[in-house]
Amino acid sequence: MADEVILLDYWPSMFGMRTKIALAEKGVKYEYKETDPWVKTPLLIEMNPIHKKIPVLIHNGKPICESLIQLEYIDEVWSDAYTILPSDPFQKSQARFWADFIDKKFYDPSWKVWATMGEELVAAKKELLEHFKTLETELGDKPYYGGEVFGYVDIALMGYYSWFKAMEKFGEFSIETEFPKLTTWTKRCLERESVVKALADSDRIIEYVHVMRKKFGAE
Amino acid sequence: MATEDVKLIGSWASVYVMRARIALHLKSISYEFLQETFGSKSELLLKSNPVHKKMPVLIHADKPVCESNIIVQYIDEAWNSSGPSILPSHPYDRAIARFWAAYIDDQWFISLRSILTAQGEEEKKAAIAQVEERTELLEKAFNDCSKGKPFFNGDHIGYLDIALGSFLGWWRVVELDANHKFLDETKTPSLAKWAERFCDDPTVKPIMPEITKLAEFARKLFPKPQA
């Protein structure tokens, strides 16, 4: 039976970029449907009635929501190709922990640093730099977060890569200066076709951020 | 894999710690329960979870695993040949279980908690309405996931049962505090029956905290503002 795979996604979404990377790593053919999450189309509402957000992965008509859940699903269904998560239960738990850290802690200041002003901005910048430092320390001298192989945490964090330039610009810091190990790691990940094809252009993201800042009243 | 060195850092009152304990019981794993003192964090906790400094932390053969849902999955995978499976076997069912577990933590619990932290009647009423709405979604999720069986996971307790069921003690405390019943035979017939089954389960019964004790603890954690 031929698999029908559709991805509802929006071009700037760091979450959608994760799913695109995973699908490409597994060599899964899919139909990409550009979906603006601010416009609640009937298909989006039908496939993600709870959150009405993208990305939504639709596999043979059945929706899977939330990017990290999609990554695990993709790994389990297309299991004969390269694996995204390690097979050892402890290593897997560590991978899940760090991906969870990225979404629970890193996500909020990562957008507040371009969306806010004044005291809120100062606090967001401080928090963001702390979390970058934590991620730099966790990576250490390993080629990838999981060790020798590109995997779950790398995909979870590289999803944000297109937004790094915007974070640097509005947060007024340089990732290359402050976080050399992360910088080396991003360059390594950018050698992968799956990553390059999934990411949005950083300058285009900055243009998008300007539009969003006007909406939030930050400019 | 029988006599492993397994420790769990936690507290009798914590929902999240309860999740880990239920999973350990399901797999018949003996463990040392290291209870934290309320108001302070032990050196072991700070050393084992330097990033979040929170419980529960499962320490298995000196290796720490943090975050309750991650711990539950770890227990399922590390002891996969003992006891029932905690996660469903089909990838799609697993994705659905993970989705609702995340919903419970990120959305449903936030509204439940706002009832306890609400300032004034208006705020409380709004929080109650939101919990009602979100619980209705969970009732539907139960019917979809259980497919007529006793638990979200089917014949026995699983990941999603643990994710929501661990809240039942606190949920009852909130119901008493707000003077409002959420789990009820008319509004949420499936969840009401499931809740009874869950609390009666031998893996849960010995560790479900006593409601009066929990309510007393809640008053310490969420003191009422002085009039």
From TrEMBL, chain A:
It comes from the Eukaryota. One of its GO terms (biological process) is glutathione metabolic process. Residues 88-209 form the GST C-terminal domain. Keywords: Cytoplasm, Detoxification, Transferase. Transmembrane segments: none annotated. One of its GO terms (molecular function) is glutathione transferase activity. InterPro entries: Glutathione-S-Trfase_C-like, Glutathione_S-Trfase, Glutathione_S-Trfase_N, GST_C_Tau, Omega/Tau-like. The keyword Transferase applies. Is involved in the conjugation of reduced glutathione to a wide number of exogenous and endogenous hydrophobic electrophiles. This is Glutathione S-transferase. It comes from Arabidopsis suecica.
TrEMBL record, chain B:
One of its GO terms (cellular component) is cytosol. Residues 90-221 form the GST C-terminal domain. Residues 4-83 form the GST N-terminal domain. Its EC number is 2.5.1.18. It holds the Pfam family GST_N. InterPro entries: Glutathione-S-Trfase_C-like, Glutathione_S-Trfase, Glutathione_S-Trfase_N, GST_C, GST_C_Tau, Omega/Tau-like. It is found in: Cytoplasm, Cytosol. It catalyses: RX + glutathione = an S-substituted glutathione + a halide anion + H(+). GO terms for molecular function: glutathione transferase activity. The keyword Thylakoid does not apply. It is an enzyme of class 2 (transferase). One of its GO terms (biological process) is glutathione metabolic process. Keywords: Cytoplasm, Detoxification, Transferase. The keyword Transferase applies. Its main location: cytoplasm. PANTHER family: GLUTATHIONE S-TRANSFERASE U18 (PTHR11260:SF597), GLUTATHIONE S-TRANSFERASE, GST, SUPERFAMILY, GST DOMAIN CONTAINING (PTHR11260). Belongs to the GST superfamily. Tau family. This is glutathione transferase. The lineage of its organism: Eukaryota, Viridiplantae, Streptophyta, Embryophyta, Tracheophyta.
